[in-house]
User: Fold these one by one.
Assistant:
Number 1:
Amino acid sequence: MGAVAPGGAPSVNAWSVEGVVSHVDGFRLGPVDLELAPGRVVAVLGSSGAGKTTLLRTLAGFLPVRAGRIVRDGVDLTDRPPEERGLGYVPQGLGLFPHRTVERNVSYPLEVRGRTDAIARSRELLERFGLAELAHRRPARLSGGELERVALARALAGEPDLVLWDEPWQALDVEARHELGRVLEELRETDRVPVVVVTHDPSLAFSVADSFLVLRAGKVALRGDAATMLAHPSDAFLARFAGFENVYDRASLERGRPGSLAAWLSERAGTDGVAFVRPTPKAVGDPHGAWEGVVRSARPTPEGLAVTVRVDDLSVALRLPPPPTGVVPFVGARVRFDVEEKSVLALGPPASAPRGTLQ
Amino acid sequence: MSRGGAASGRPRWRTGPYWLALQLVLSGSLLLLFLLPIAALFTYAPPQRILAAATNPAVSTALYLTFLASGIAVLAAVVFAIPLGYLLARRAFRGRSVVESVVALPVVVPHLLVGVGLFFLILPGSPLYRFTTAVGLPIYDTIWGVVLVMVFVSAPYTVLAADLSFRAVDGRVLEAARSLGAGPATAFLTVTFPLALRGIVAGLLLTWARAVSEIGGILILAYAVYPGGPYSGPVTSTLSVYVYNLFQTGDLADAAAVSSLFLLIAFVLFFLVRLGERTGWVPWRRGELLP
């Protein structure tokens, strides 16, 4: 960092990914556009096989760019090998060196650059990430959360211009996730390194990301900030990601007979179907609710009773106030409820829906 | 029925005594098969005879030749077999399965045939004969003949071990190294090779063991070994041929003594490897290299 870009202007470390296309085993990714700047965290979302890891490996230089450019401060990095891109890449599974101690994992980026202070710098980073006591252990003897922190410390050791992180929260317990969220926050505030993070964990994506890039079958389905993500989930995957519990595709709704809930939803569905947030019934047996269903299951959660009811062919998730203030429905009971018109969302390619630009 | 009754009524064959007995009988039989011939050798070779064999200059010359030739064969495996293993592990190319079959060939072909094949290859007048004599590396009845047969029969073990070991190196670990600033050569030296080393050393050890115990091809190509190349002692033969000769001439007790001596040396060597694992001056951990 702090290098000087051609023309003598000090580097600001602004990255732009312009219409990048890449192929792997018959899969086509892109075109993808991205703007990255110091202190920005971009979350790349999408279901399995959407191309998230392919995007990261393309940015890292492990897959050839078939079209488009990757530019940093006016310098074209498109055809540079991985080692010349100034990266901190944390691959899926972390890719820690099993034959090196924690300390020498973290010192690696400095060692390969011939830095004599490699070990000293490694110690500093381990101290910062609370890993000092583990310095002489091998990765095989560390917990999941510790491994994540070692991988991040190693990625930062070479003072990268960009951090790429694939599925950082996989297989972590709640506490370790919380700790990692804190570390990412610090990365944004202190190190000011742009971060591209691949995940399919909604809660952490929303807690750390400034902007989102959603991939579907290799194409960019949506770009924007959290508000855009929540307000305009364009497909069933995003709707579930954004916390919509009741998501239906068109086909299942069109089978509903006239006057049914399915038919009512069908009128409001987009090309990909419909989604609505959980309705809250007034009370079990309230005769004024528009729809009636039979309780299939009920379990207590921190936000109240999560109840699933069956309405004709549709399964609907409801939320009841927690007992004892609320009523406890039993399986087989009939529950009436309403669905608010404004909580129903049409899913489908949002031809005219506003799209945020990723900064 | 009480809960305790239900539990004790459950079939217990998984950890039951019959299963354990079967395991003991089956594995014990194999261990006996390994141990009994060795025990028989030692009963025919009392300690003083083994000592006599050890101090017999003819025996130590044969031992020296055997270790020298097998050492050169292992070096050849390091130089030629490891790159081939890497090629097989990392490159996709046409005719790959043909190459893999060729590598497996020396393992499955009877070694007497290997000797006969090599014999025809270096018949006086053949291009290879003219070439080897011109560059001063005569093969027939020299240490080079021994080395040639040894490399032929033993190098595949290193090729296969290197192939498997390079293949087992996690590609994502390698990608991490590259992205962190290591060029291809640095990444190979700091990550790929150290991670594959343990398996490769295991392959080299097998190569050495196979080379040392070779006799079939050597009987044909270098029955007697005349001084030349790195070997400058008196006319001798490899230890395997030496024991074979003793046995053929009816000198059973001496054959047993020399065999026992060799077994002791092999045992000490493998014991040293184990000791190395214990004290940690080998690049692998206990139990990872030898069964």
Number 2:
Amino acid sequence: MLPLNGLSTFDLEQMSDEEFWDYARKQADASSRISSQEKNYQDQYLECELSRGNCLIPLKTIVEVVPPPHRFTQLPVTPGWMRGLVAWRGEAIAVIDLDMYLCGVNASPLDGMLLVTSHADATVGLLVPGIGLTTTVQFEQMNPSTKPSMFYTPMRAGVVRGVYAEEPVLDILALLPDVVQQIGMAAHYG
Amino acid sequence: MDDVHSFFHQDELSDEDLEVLRVFHTLEEPTSDDPLLQETIPAASIAHQTDTAQSSMLLSEDDMLVLFATEADEDIAMMRSALQHLEQDDRLHAPSLKALKRATHKVAGTAAAIGCDSMSTIARHMETVIKLVEDGSVVHLTGLIALVHSVQALEATLQSIVSNGYESKNPLLELEEEYKDFNIDIHAAQTAKSSSPEDTATTSTPGLSQHLIDNYHTSLALPVDLQHLNKLIEHAEKLIELDTPIEYAQKQVETALDELQVAQARLRRLEPLLSSLSVSSNTTPNALIDDAGYPPASLVARILQEAAERTRHIPQMRSIAPNQPLLIYEATIWDEMEIDRFSETNVLPHSLTEAITDVAMATCHLRQALAHLKFIVARQASQASAVRNQAYLLRSLPFSVLITRLKQAIEIMVGAQRERTQFEASGETIEIDQDILETITDPLLECVQLHVAEDLFFSKRSEQDTGKGSRIWLSAHAMGNEVTIKIGFSQSASPGAIAILQETAHHLYGSVSLQEHAEGGITLQLRLPRFQRMIQGLLVRVANQCVIVPVLQVRRIHYNKRGIDKTHLQVGDSQEMSFVDTHKIYHLNALLGFFTGNSFTERMIQTALVLELDSPQIAVEVDEVLGEEELLMKPLATHLCRPGITSTAIDGNGDLLLVVNLPEMIRLKETHQQAGEIVIAANTVNKREMLPSQSAAHLRRKIFIADDSVYIRQSIAMILNHEGYEVIQVVDGLQTLEQLSKESPDLLLLDIEMPNLNGYDVLNIIRTRQEFTGLKIVLLTSRSSEKHKRRAGELGAHAYLTKPCSQEILLETIKSLLA
């Protein structure tokens, strides 16, 4: 049942047919706008502050945004960009310094934000200095990241989906497996 | 001597008879023209060690050949006996099969060493056939017949050596033809076998083991839906996990309360200040008190003023002394009747006082509520813990299940000779997690199988003749979340048992220790958690991180209150000095790979965990032991697992703690170190000439030869004696360990396949004992696969030589290691 938006049934009864159908049309438009907003959620991205600018992370891959703990549990033999482990919902997850991972710069302070991202079986915490607003970006609006960028090293080009408003859009579905693989490999090769 | 041979057929002569004849003959005519010698010594091509210098050694080549023939004959007899056992059953009889495998392996190695290629090949063929039978590639009965024919071929070949002085190839060729009749493509199978990973001596026999495990599973069937049970456990764990956020929230409330109290105290401090301010404001602005004598903001004044404006009548006010300020105490004593005496500035301190009182009361109520909440939360936690433990108990089974399985297995294995093996058990009612029981069943069965094989086929004939049986005992004892399982063998130790149990125990965050009995036999003690995922751990600090060390892995905690610097030890510090000297000490930080600073010998050792290993002499230094906690282990995702770290736990503050498996970490660290150090000689040592000075230096260096083959021992002893080394021979693993403790050899030549603890077991024990640190170990075995070489390296062997090994390579390897 549609909300009456402050109108009582009495008000509806008082309406002429024309007024009633106008009102009904408006309500129907509003309803369709809500569904399209929900659809747009798939295209929403969270702006994250990095030392060399901002980047965009798809909202659908972020499970939770939490302040990072005061201390990370250190795990032996890990890549330099892995800050350590934290307990999240009773499980141990790796925390990645996104700045360091992308461009080799160790700039994320401990008082940044921790974005818990998940895809398939992999759950990883991305530590960023700060977060901004969410933005809706259609795939068509993205430009391919052909030029070298100071935001990320060429080695990380595979985890950048494109560029929108000069901000790299990260492909978390590519980033998480890469992170997981490199952490796993570090155990064998140091 | 011809006469003698005409009277006695070779087959009728016992080993002792042959030996007596040989000695008599040597006394009479010590020449190489002797017919007996011609008969017993194979052609020159057979013997590979023909150094002229050796002719003057203790034993001549014919002596060696007699030894070989005697030993081979015994081994063949053992094969026959094992085959008889196998024939009685339509399934693979594990101990018999193990005995057969060991005997064939021994003959293959020894025959190759003496140059009897046909015998060695037949024995290798037998190993292949056994493998095919185990794999199921060859039907059990067909395999048995092929093995019986193989034994006959071995006998015939040995006979040809003894009778004709050379090795006949006919039995081998005939055997290979027979294999074809049985549809066994022996060469193809051998090619496949060499390309596939070789089984170790510790591999379990799938037939019997699987059979038992099948039964085991049947009896383990729960009367509840396992899925529901697992869900229940999951929910119970989640319920307990809620403790962490609740405790965290409680702490936050406590912190907020403390802050509230601080704020309250500050307000109290402000109270007199505000009152004094209100006094001064009452006294100073006299002008504010209007002509009528009321303060302008006074309610009474306002009412009167409004009335005057309405009626234009100025009332006659009673006079109030204008300079009569309210005293502080007056401002705080509120009297409604005196309301007209109070201004709004007087009301403020009063309201503040009231507010402070209200806050104080609210704080008090909050504290009471928090205390009550704490009590309820503690009850809830205890109740949740009880639910979880009860849920775990649903997954547990009494130890009697395992006892029954082992008893059945022993009965099947010993068969008709049941009275020879006595089985005793205790601790039937101890409840253990099913998963843990399942995990330990196979290894324990394996140990028992090895022991029974050892007892039935390899124990001394004299013991068998006297009817002296063997005893196996099994017991369980539980304390908290820990269970101690002891398995003991009265007469011999199962070869490979330690390695088998060690691997299992480490996998379960437990430990294994070995106890040797003066009257013979050993007891293996496993300390394991009773329930999987629950762990009693020591909370240990290293640098700025806390980790959990399972209590089961720690024998004791060594504290040094003063902090001893080894380089400045004084008289009276002997105990500490002794600890440093007698323990191999690791630092947990270094094991974790976080920090590699000064070695422990250069620093003060404050706190160390003495590990519960085969030997008590390994300690791990930590910065601090903070306490003991029972925690729920969470397995780490695969990519986060590290050597010795596969689980984590979450403490009351919500912090993540690594659960470290110390024995595993040490094992892997040593492996890593030794991987770079091991010399896999692989028969490729440079053939350098030894300098005279070197020759003098190695004089009287003591070498142990541990091999169950008399022939191998004697031939090596001969070579080493000639080179001036002092040689001590031992026949099995247990004797090796016993003698190692008494003597101090410089080098150990170690075989892998041996009774009473195999070569790997010996290595496993040696590497944990500090007193053997300087001992050089050379594995001398017929196992040639890379897998074995790698494993030997991991366990601390310094060199690996494959039988048959040339004299030059053997000596070169020894010299290079002792240089």
Number 3:
Amino acid sequence: MRKLLFLVSLLAIALYVHLPSLSGKDIQKILLEEVLSIGSLEDDALFQWVGVISDSDSYIYVTDNMDYSLKKFDDQGNLIKKAGRKGQGPGEFLAPRYLGISNEFLYVTDQFKSKIQVFDKNLNYSRSLPISMPVSDLKVLSDDKIAVTTISMSKTGRIFIFNSKGKIKRELLYSDKKSPLMIDNVNFDFDVQGNLYVVYNYQDKIEKFDPEGRKIWTKKLLNIKKIKREKIGQFTLPTKFVYKDVALDSSGNLFILGGGFSKNPSCDVYVLTPEGNHLTTFTLPDSSHCIYVDGNDFLYSRINEGVTLRKFKIKYVYE
Amino acid sequence: MILQIQKHMKKASLILIILTIFLSANVSSLEAGRCEKAFLNCFLGSLRSLPNFTRVYLNIGYCLNGWVFCGKYLEK
């Protein structure tokens, strides 16, 4: 009888917690509750952080552009270890950028290096994957499935999947049109089913593809028709960001960071369902170049122009 | 053969000099922002790899990557 009562209580708690999603209620708004802040104008924990990622033990890994480093923090924000210095050698950086993570390893891109450097979780350098193109975004699906977008004047509109040896296993074509330079530049993410979400940096376009690469939907959120471009030297380049980054929460909702066209530039985050329906928009406390959502639905963004990293609990308010 | 290579080298050097002059003039005349300046400096730097056109091409890719990053980081 006691056991039964215990089980019923457990079920009731589980139902209470998951009731909104089970009853099909939509998210009405999202609130951010700050839980951690790393770095400030008064300390030297971070100078100009760029990439952030966390692991299942809640350790936070950050690349810092100013001191050419990769840093590991615990869940209280204490610096556990710092690795890297300026240089061309193994484990050294010229401009450390984005981070990917697998069960064992961290993957770090560098703006000026034609490789991805791999470190263990204690930040010891392990190996490098040769990538012969500049990497503009990275998602590590496994150690043998590393997805990257690259910037190239010839091969645009595709995501490359590399294996653990740095060989291309697959190319996912998201745009087959011949577009002006940089117009097809994107950020991307994959959900647990292997669907691909692509947000264009310089176009009002968000797209979903199934694991076979077939397009499922295309969305526009801001109704922007004209791309802002400028002649810089010999090149005509886009100058204003429509979308800066994309991340998925544990339910597969998309969090899209808006750029200069948003009402609150580089602060507005648009939340879409996996079906592409706009649920709500919320605003970050400061402009950010990226957003990251971890497996426990904590959102990370930038404060103080890169001196501070903030971690927020995402609070879902249902209708 | 050596004469031919020398001829190509001369051509490439001439292109490099003209491009450098043209772009330098462009840099000074441009009321450039931080990202524009960084991109143009990067581009000029990438021309140092001439006459290795494959290298120049790749380097310009890195400059464009920097352009995206700079804009993303600084744009408010």
